[in-house]
Amino acid sequence: MLIHLSSPTLSSSVRILTFTPSLRYSFINQPLQTYRTAIPSTPTRVVQMGHEKSQLVSQKSHAISNFRLCNVSGRKTELVEIHATNPRFHVLFIPGNPGVVSFYTDFLESLYEQMGETASITGIGYISHSEKDWEDGRLFGLKEQIDHKINFIQQELQTIEVPLILVGHSIGSFMSLDIYKRIPEKVAYIFALYPFLAVDTKSQQQSIIKKISRSQLTSNVISAIVALFGFLPIWASRFIAKISLGKSWSTTALDALCTRVLKYHTMRNVLYLTMTEFEELIKAPDWEFMREKRNRIAFLYGDDDHWAPLHMHDEVVKQVPNAIIEVEKEENPNLNRNHGIPISIINKLYAMHKKLYVFEIQE
């Protein structure tokens, strides 16, 4: 049972938009420090993230992602990294729940290519949402996971000389906003993709998941059942997953599922984190902060997402006038996006009214 279904179909069919080469942007990371960069254009292409039959107009991405284990304040952390030769900014991607960052490898590689190889990209996993139980069964809630990301920024990204952009998916968007509030001097801009910002009390699906996550017995039983599949040989669990989930999952996503999610410690942490999410997100979002930083925060909503429903989009529009916000329409209604990420969002939001987190520089 995947709580947020972060990436099984890392999107349905999506359209990649090209950058506008004539624009120049000023990235302001700190009040007294200004960064300037040009966004290059790249070929248009259509991708089904997580889908083995991706339709490519341009050639396949040549991005080389590296998997690395990092020790962050004593916690083993899984990273997916792509290093640009001459980066003009650095993207830190924070996934949804489950926080298995290798789910997003295809997305991050395509993102790197579509940004013209001008950004170094780091995807960071959650504590104990991992292949091995490095933490000996300990459970980590929302606050601890946010602290972990802040510690990583202060430890690993302290000396970068380019703007830091946070890209968060689902609860990763909430984490990104909280990080921005706590260390604003470190963060330039935020992309919130299908943001889970508040509990939807009218959602039956959220209500069911909330009850499951609050029950220790139910959580233990579900985690044990999930873990049984993890004991199978990798080829067997991959075969069962592919039969059960269909052909929309890539080999990368299937491997992430079988090697990391089908573990007792991971599933138990997924449910525990979900419980603490519901406890925290029953509160109203910090609208005042979003209004203050509206030129540095962009939101993307889907037209059918129970974690980021359209009525929440409407509330953001109401509470944050002139917010940078857009709705991603499902081009194929027969495909279930499953809270996945359309890779078009970065380019699309850059193009929105020529003002996403950035200020155009007049020649």
TrEMBL record:
GO-annotated molecular function: lipase activity
BP terms from Gene Ontology: lipid storage
Q: List residues traversing the bilayer.
A: none
Report keywords, A-Z.
Answer: Hydrolase, Lipid droplet
Q: What's the chief localization of this chain? A: other
Q: Name one GO cellular component term.
A: lipid droplet
The subcellular location is: Lipid droplet
Q: Does the keyword Chloroplast apply?
A: no
A Pfam family reported for this protein in Swiss-Prot or TrEMBL: LIDHydrolase
**Gene3D superfamilies, A to Z:** alpha/beta hydrolase
Which family does this protein fall into?
Answer: Belongs to the AB hydrolase superfamily. LDAH family.
Q: Per its record, how is this protein called by name?
A: Lipid droplet-associated hydrolase
